[in-house]
Amino acid sequence: MGATKTEHFTNKQNEMAILAKALGHPARIAIVEYLIKVNSCICGDIVNELPLAQPTVSQHLKELKNAGLIKGSIEGNAICYCIDEKAIEKLQNYFGNISTKLTDKKNKCC
Amino acid sequence: MGATKTEHFTNKQNEMAILAKALGHPARIAIVEYLIKVNSCICGDIVNELPLAQPTVSQHLKELKNAGLIKGSIEGNAICYCIDEKAIEKLQNYFGNISTKLTDKKNKCC
DNA sequence: ATTTAATATTGCAATATTACGATTAAAATT
DNA sequence: AATTTTAATCGTAATATTGCAATATTAAAT
């Protein structure tokens, strides 16, 4: 026990859970927000923006990358990071869809 | 170490991270989707829908409730669960906002 | 009052996450 | 070539999560 039983859920469910989980930490939310704020790809500079040690930030970046939320490309001795818009789109569609379904119905039982 | 350093991030960042984290597990995604699918509040019945033991489901429900994603009210000897629309709205707004900011900019450096 | 049904809680083992110091790797600069 | 810069990786401690059997709780039904 201890490990998530992904095999019992649909691909879509696992995919959304992976994206959500990646954003389930304030540092990773902060990284994504910073990438949006600077409005471009960032080469270096991310570590200085966060109140965490360099290896910790590196680890968070890796998780965001594994989840497909950011892309990173080597740019000399720095790394260029930016948001992967497709992932954000998926999240937006997902919650937009849920929102629509919720407002469609009118049975207020709670 | 091992605990998230929430104190270094903004309230909003922590709030979004809590919501995302709650959805960062396929079982909890499945619960939310089920609540939407049946299109009403559900009294009982959730445990049978999931491929997990009753205590595990109960725990996932508790986490969704703590994060503010679902509401539960006692209804006889069953519990009536439903989505808290405000939380979904927050998520939709958040990702909608990010999406807008991303499509606004045109600097494709990646 | 007993039994039944639905859900929560407890306790625990397995695993995952978070954080960081130390180290390494790779490229730019001197 | 030696140094500096930037970021990844390793190792490890602290903590959190996942999952479930056993048990408790609560209210309805008998």
Characterise the protein shown here.
2 copies of one chain form a homodimer. Chain A has helices at residues 11-22, 26-37, 46-49, 54-66, 85-104, and strands spanning 42-43, 70-75, 78-83. Chain A has 5 helices and 3 strands; from the N terminus they run H-H-E-H-H-E-E-H. The first copy, chain A, has one domain: Orthogonal Bundle (Arc Repressor Mutant, subunit A). The structure holds a DNA duplex (30 and 30 nucleotides).
Annotation keywords:
homodimer, 110 residues, alpha+beta, Arc Repressor Mutant, subunit A, 55% helix, 13% strand, DNA-binding
Compact description:
The structure is a homodimer of 110-residue chains. Chain A has 110 residues and is of the alpha+beta class.
What's the SSE blueprint?
The structure is a homodimer of 110-residue chains.
Chain A: H1 11-22, H2 26-37, E1 42-43, H3 46-49, H4 54-66, E2 70-75, E3 78-83, H5 85-104
Antiparallel strand pairs in A: 1-3, 2-3
Chain B binds a DNA duplex (30 and 30 nucleotides) through α4.
Task: Please state the overall shape of chain A, judged from the principal axes of the Cα atoms.
Answer: globular
From the 3D coordinates, which CATH architecture of chain A would you assign? Orthogonal Bundle
Helix content of chain A: 55-70%
Q: What top-tier CATH class of chain A fits best?
A: Mainly Alpha
Indicate the mean pLDDT of chain A: 90
Number of strands of chain A: 3
β-strand percent of chain A reads 5-15%
- The run of helices and strands of chain A is HHEHHEEH
User: Main interface pair?
Assistant: A-B, 50 and 50 residues
Q: Measured on Cα atoms, how large is the radius of gyration of chain A? A: 17 Å
* Terminal Cα span of chain A: 35 Å
What strand line-up does the widest sheet of chain A have? 1-3-2
